[in-house]
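Input.
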Amino acid sequence: MATVALAKRGYFVEAVDAAAPMIELARQNAAEAGVGSRVNANLGDVYHLAFSDEAFGLVLSIGVIPWLQSPAQAITELARVLKPGGYLLLTADNRWRLALLLDPVTSPFLAWTRQTLKKILGIASQPAPMANVVRSYQHSLSEVDAFFAGAGLERVRTETLGFGPFTFFYRKVLPEWLGVAVHRVLQRFVDMRCPVLRSTGAQFLVLARKRPQNARSGGLQENQA
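Output.
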């Protein structure tokens, strides 16, 4: 896990989670790795962090933003505890992921067509299969940029990763082994900076920098995968 990996590199880590079992797990992992003295894990709320302003040079938010109803508020709070010139590294689920684009039921390009057909046929909207399952919130890269702009951050690097599982009308079309193979091939093209695929991974890994207080707002420095 990231907490232990950072501690092993000599960093002192403040780990925060809203779930008590995750805090206990972080403490246990740190102790077993021999870095317990470098990890301070406590319950916390991403919307109201118990740290002073400009406390850290680096903040990580891995697997958090996709589950928040108010990501802009959370990112503003994360930026608050960053020093000017400090970095925020976060993950976000991609609204334009390839797996969604290829399924006629989920493709945003076919949204108008789906609604029109339902009206013509008089079909009421039905909940999708597994609609009662908690799902993550998905964002476009432009939305993430807007969150950053409102928090005084600027995006400096983006990577995209993860492809699949691929479905057709919510049904998986590839066996597990083939889906993994397809993912690896597509990810290899992304790592080679393929312009067609570089924005269609399941997730974005985004690095943002907090603007110095005396810096003027400028353009983004984009090095996207």
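Residues 216-225 have pLDDT under 50 and may be disordered.
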